[in-house]
Amino acid sequence: MECANNAGTKSSEKKMKGDQDAMRTVECLRGRLLAERSASRAAKENVDLLAKKLKELEDRLKIEVKAREKAEKKLNLLKKKLESLGMTVVTEIENHDRNLQKTDEDDLDDDSTAALVPTLQACQQIHQMAQKESR
User: Fold this and answer.
1) DSSP SS3 for 135
2) Which of left, alpha, beta for 105 (phi over 0: left; psi -120 to 50: alpha)?
3) Which residues make Cβ contacts (< 8 Å) with residue 126, sequence separation at least 6?
4) For residue 113, how many C-alpha atoms fall within 13 Å in the half-sphere facing its CB?
5) Nearest to residue 94, comparing CAs of 73, 119, 121?
6) Where are the alpha helices (DSSP H) in the chain?
7) What is the Rg, in whole angstroms, of the alpha carbon atoms belonging to the chain?
8) What SS3 state is found at 91?
9) Residues contacting 74, CB < 8 A, separation 6+
10) pLDDT (tens digit, 9 = 90+) per residue, 72-111?
11) Cα(47)–Cα(79) distance, rounded to whole angstroms?
């Protein structure tokens, strides 16, 4: 009879061990599922945040483009006014090109300083015109 009891005990031990392994597997899978859900939620929040930042940057870009277009229109208007007054308009690019041609000169001499005076006067006139237009 003891053999029968021993056999029954061994099978119940195997069954309990099998149940414990199954429970461990279920708990492990449950933990992995929760971790994946958490990672997925964090990734979704990150995507939402990046989308919000992108939208804000697009809006700021639209505002900046409109401001630039407005400034370009005003610049062209002021250029036309200067040209109608008989003044030549010198752009920064033209000034830069001239400066590149004079690479062998290190310091400003009297002639180049004198050339800046009309430019300063033109800038002052542009500023005055812009102030009058804004009023």
Assistant:
1) coil
2) beta
3) 78, 82
4) 4
5) 119
6) 2-84, 92-101, 110-134
7) 40
8) coil
9) 130, 133
10) 999 989 888 888 887 776 666 566 566 666 655 555 454 5
11) 47
- Say whether pLDDT at 1 is over 80: no
Distance CA(116)–CA(82), nearest Å, equals 17
Q: Given the structure tokens 């809006």, which residue do they identify?
A: 59
Both tokens of residue 110?
């009297």
Tokens 């300063």 belong to 120
Torsion of CA 19, 23, 26, 29, to 10 degrees: -120
Tokens of 49: 């945040």
Token pair 């031990």: residue: 13
